[in-house]
TrEMBL record:
This is Cysteine desulfurase. It comes from Curtobacterium luteum. Residues 36-418 form the Aminotransferase class V domain. It catalyses: (sulfur carrier)-H + L-cysteine = (sulfur carrier)-SH + L-alanine. InterPro entries: Aminotrans_V_dom, Aminotrans_V_PyrdxlP_BS, Cys_dSase_SufS, PyrdxlP-dep_Trfase, PyrdxlP-dep_Trfase_major, PyrdxlP-dep_Trfase_small. Pfam families: Aminotran_5. Catalyzes the removal of elemental sulfur and selenium atoms from L-cysteine, L-cystine, L-selenocysteine, and L-selenocystine to produce L-alanine. It is an enzyme of class 2 (transferase). Keywords: Lyase, Pyridoxal phosphate, Transferase.
């Protein structure tokens, strides 16, 4: 269906039409209709995406960029058409700025280890801007997903650079002013999430980019929680690299995207080496292709790329501004409902500050895993744990939290069921009247 329109939440009828495209949502769980509120972890897939991958595998499947037979040509065309579709979706200047990876974690590692390889002397003079040494600094935030923290820890350990981080406030958020206090003349790279997977905070990208570029630093953006849920134009954002995953945006597992400015990708030393990414191989040395092929060694996820492109087209038909408005509306409905539930602490931006369509919270006296299991018994799927953000949870004084996340197929009814069930949890576990005792 095509919905593109003003920046208003989807209507009840529009969401009903969308839900009809998702077979998995038509089932019951534990005897109750499924309310899937875990799209921040992985999104469900519409029949259009499932069918696109199946059609490719049934009719066009072959190795890409190899062979002169008809199926090889068809598969290569489909593979590169998918790249062009994704490039257009994120405002890339050219399809060659889009690199296929196995997921966003892989994409972020590709960039980080490119810095490490350049620091070892790989890549020649062109890679000089990626080289790190003792005295240089890498800046992240205390709110990062481990995928955008651990690789930079490793790069710092390998190169002798210092890892610094922007601290978060008591609610888990940070500001451009906080970043300005950490970014210095020694900063060489600044890496942060566009949208936090715990707090839902939308980062001040433009301000941080300006701060970083003023110091000559490069900016790496984790767009996992933004690209599926709101308009993302990498050119307008001004970042140097961005990464996101297919499975969080109605697409398949096993494929992710690294976007980078063409001049940077052509200069960045590759992370993996082998077939398909070379021009010349001799026994003593090899020469590499320009981007994006230089980063796509070996057999590629072709059917997954085709399916991801179909997921992009599905989202484009809905309109990303309307997707954003729908999710933000649902998040506010969650926040309003949880505000009336005693003993519930929501983390993230205060009232009135924009956030994405996810809400993480703590139920006093009840562990997050018990919260999630109670909700599951009611047919409501949420995420519990530290959400691959242990430092952030530690700063918040939590071992774990429960996270409910929305998407295009989420209804107001899903949210209302969720709020009602959360209101029953403390009574069920005998934790009422125990405010302040802590579930942690």
């Amino acid at each position: 269906m095509t919905i593109v329109g003003p920046s208003t939440p989807l209507t009840e009828d529009e969401v009903a039409c969308i839900r009809a495209d998702f077979p998995i949502l038509q089932q019951e769980v534990n005897g109750r209709p499924l309310a899937y509120l875990d799209s921040g972890a992985t999104a469900e897939r519409p029949v259009q995406v499932l069918d696109a991958e199946r059609r490719f595998l049934e009719h066009d499947n072959a190795a890409v960029h190899r062979g002169a037979h008809t199926l090889a040509a068809l598969s290569t065309d489909a593979y590169e058409d998918a790249r062009a579709t994704v490039a257009g979706f994120i405002g890339a200047a050219s399809p060659r700025e889009v690199v296929w990876t196995s997921n966003a974690t892989d994409a972020l590692n590709l960039v980080a280890y490119g810095f490490a390889n350049a620091s070892r002397g790989r890549g020649g003079a062109a890679a000089g801007r990626f080289r790190l040494a003792p005295g240089d600094e890498i800046v992240v935030t205390e709110a990062e997903h481990h995928a955008n923290l651990v690789p930079w820890q490793e790069v710092a350990a390998t190169t002798g650079a210092t890892l610094r981080w922007v601290p978060v406030a008591d609610d888990g958020t940070w500001t451009a002013a906080d970043a300005a206090a950490v970014i210095t003349d020694r900063t060489k790279v600044v890496a942060f999430a566009h949208v936090s997977n715990v707090t839902g905070m939308v980062a001040p990208v433009a301000e941080v980019v300006a701060l970083a570029h003023a110091k000559g630093a490069l900016v790496v953006l984790d767009a996992c929680q933004s690209a599926p849920h709101r308009p993302v134009d990498v050119g307008a954002l001004g970042v140097d690299f961005a990464a996101f995953s297919g499975h969080k945006m109605l697409g398949p597992n096993g494929i992710g995207v690294l976007w980078g400015r063409a001049d940077l990708l052509d200069a960045l030393p590759p992370f993996r080496t082998g077939g398909s990414m070379i021009t010349t191989v001799m026994m003593e040395s090899s020469e590499y292709m320009p981007a994006p092929e230089r980063f796509e060694a070996g057999t590629q996820p072709v059917s997954q790329a085709v399916a991801l492109a179909e997921a992009v087209r599905y989202l484009q038909r809905l309109g990303m501004e309307q997707v954003r408005a729908h999710e933000e509306h649902l998040a506010q409905r969650m926040l309003d409902g949880l505000a009336d539930v005693p003993g519930v602490r929501v983390v993230g931006p205060p009232a009135g500050v924009p956030r994405s369509g996810l809400v993480a919270f703590d139920v006093d006296g009840v562990h997050a895993h018990d919260v999630a299991q109670y909700l599951d018994a009611e047919g409501i799927a949420v995420r519990s744990g530290h959400h691959c953000a242990q430092p952030l949870h530690r700063r918040l004084g939590l071992v774990a939290s429960t996270r409910a996340s929305t998407y295009v197929y989420t209804t107001e009814s899903d949210v209302d069921r969720f709020v009602r069930a959360v209101g029953e949890i403390r009574g069920y576990f005998g934790a009422e009247g125990d405010e302040g005792a802590g579930a942690r």
